[in-house]
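Study this chain:
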Amino acid sequence: ETVSVGFEKGVPVSVNGEALAPVALIEKLNQIGAKHGVGIDDMVENRLVGMKSRGVYENPAGTMLYAALKQLESICLDRDTLHYKHQVALRYSELVYNGQWFAPLREGLDAFVNSIQSSTTGESRLKLYKGRCVNAGVTSPYSLYNPEFATFGEDAVYNQQDAEGFINLFGLPMT
């Protein structure tokens, strides 16, 4: 089954073209994902106090939303912002896991993420099959991807010979 999730400024707002309130959206994705075994995670994790524990979690909607947003961000956020967001996400998850929800740092990280989500609007499609959730396409009016710019063939966008300068400059530290 293929499912599409619509986002406005990083917030999920629709499933398969149907606008839904937040709780209804989660319920709908849980129902769809559960049919396909999506979102089951069996892991050994490191607790805050250092001991390891085993947990089995079922979160179809969360798994699908994470995959859909990640796919949308890949075309809407520039390289440096996206890489930094990945670093922020790791620290954010540690704060939340460790019970530091009301920490000023968590609030600051929220402000950062909210500010970069202004262009994260569009639709992600996911293919669900036997527990897997695979990207199946993404569109956005704010997409930074331009197939005419991302070519290795001849084009009128830039001179391919310019790459020689980058190669020389980036190779300097290794010579």
Helices lie at 22-35, 60-76, 79-97, 104-116, 163-171. DSSP finds five helices and seven strands in the chain.
